[in-house]
Each structure stands twice: as structure tokens, then as C-alpha cells.
Specification:
Blueprint (H helix, E strand, L loop, with lengths): L20 E5 L17 E15 L6 E16 L6 E2 L13 H13 L4 H12 L7 H5 L1
Parallel strand pairs: 1-3
Antiparallel strand pairs: 2-3, 3-4
Amino acid sequence: MIGKPKGAKGGGRNRPEKIHQTIDLYPQYCPNCNSSLTELKAYFVYDRKLTDLSREKDEVGAYGVLRIRNIQQNIHRRKCPVCNYWVYPDQGLFKNARFGPGLVAYIMTKRIRFCMTYENILEEMEDIFGYEFSVSVTEIIN
């Protein structure tokens, strides 16, 4: 049997409640025949939530401040008229990621440059951002 037993509590990360930004992702060309798909009708397929760091101006607008942001990505597909192939947007290395490149880079910098333990990194992030992470740092970078 694969997966959790019936009736058992599910694991994993809870989806963020507050969404700071929504991005729609569309395929631009067909990878099979290189046809342009930009003018074709797109169909919503699914959405996913990504937690990342962003640098924003403070309340006064004087300083750049790091903030945790939850981003919802809406994934759309288009059908190629030439080869009849359903095409999804290319999402690169972060296709299945729950955490964005800014957050991953921040953690890796703390780990490598400052030789911090994962526990200390998580503690510091909770202090700085006032955000309680429901997963471990190693889950974020993997």
C-alpha cells in the first residue's frame, strides 16, 4: 500500500491563508513544433502556492526590507493547432517547489556563509519575519 492509511491525519505543509500576489502562467510556444501559442485560448488547470522572500520598501519608503510573501501561481494550458498537443507553461527548476528562489537562497547563504545550523536559521527567521514555519529548513531547501 502506498501513502497514508485511510482515516490517518495527512502530513505536509498547510496552504498559506493570506495570498500577497497572484501570477497567471501561460505557455508561449509549443515545445514539439515551436508554434506560437500566445493568441490561442488558455484553459485554467490548477493553482499552487509558493512562499518566497521579497525586498520591499518600508512604511516610510526609505529602506529595503525583506518580507515573506505567499504567491499563488495559476497554471494555464493551451492546445497547439499544428501538432494537437496540450502545452503547459515551462516552470523550470521550481515546478514542484513550495518555496521560491529568494527564500532558498537566503537559507543557503545563512548555512554556507555564516555556518549556522538549520535550527538557528529557522529560529532567526521566525524572529525576523514573525512567521512560524510549519516545516523544517531542510524541507525548504530540498
